[in-house]
């Protein structure tokens, strides 16, 4: 079991190696920069009460960020661990409208021609991972892995802790810039907004260019990660995966409250998972059967509320 997780953790192909090396390099650069440049500049004495608090909080962020990242990658979210039936089970979602063929195909047990096996509803083949993923959400280019039923919890926590880390860096950078320049002048504003331009016109030296580059990328990255978090929260509220949102499949968008949707995605102890990736939170369901809602259209009433 442990050796299988280690095998999953190790990237094998170029499409997996490049993004994860990029992500780990970025984390290392930021941690080193904050630890050796920013913090000593803000607090002259390394043993001040405030600096120790910053260090402890920083380490806690890194623990959660890296822990969730590694567990997300080491979790087998494919259909390899389940026993798929040899005969295709009869469809439980039926459609009367030919335009609903895609829903019929996706929301029933169906045959995957690449894996050559019958796969459960909401599973989908990933051409990059080269396998079918249980309740597939999307393929994350930064982790080089698919996000599905079993690892979406770690993916979401990774995103949230990355955003907290970047937000925290941005606050420290503002402190540092103020400490460095004393006041905000037009030179500082130009240097922050257009670091390369300011460097070309010799308003910045090489080290300041590097500082500006780190500070501006942390702002851009934090905004991008915030956008991803908001996107995922929207999908959780709607009970949809990213693929279902793209195809406008709403038969799993049940009318349950937000707490029920959080339990489905993050498990029974959803309110604890953000504190540590090691806290266990058993998932509800098996990733193969889901509640569907009754849908009425002008053509027909073709879905019933039932468990498939
Ligand atoms: Zn497949
Ligand atoms: Zn994939």
Characterization of this structure:
This protein has 308 residues and is mainly alpha-helical. It has one domain (2-81, 130-307). Helix content is 52%, strand content 7%. It is built from ten helices and eight strands. The strands form four sheets. It has a two-stranded antiparallel ribbon with strand order 1-2. It has a two-stranded antiparallel ribbon with strand order 3-4. Strands 5-6 form a two-stranded antiparallel ribbon. Helix 1 (2-9) packs across helix 3 and helix 5 (152-181) runs antiparallel to helix 8. It is elongated. It starts with a helix and ends with a strand. 26% of the residues are buried. Mean pLDDT is 82; it is low at 296-308. It binds zinc ion (ZN) (2 copies). One zinc ion (ZN) is lined by residues 126, 128-129, 139, 146. The site of one zinc ion has 6 residues, from strand 4.
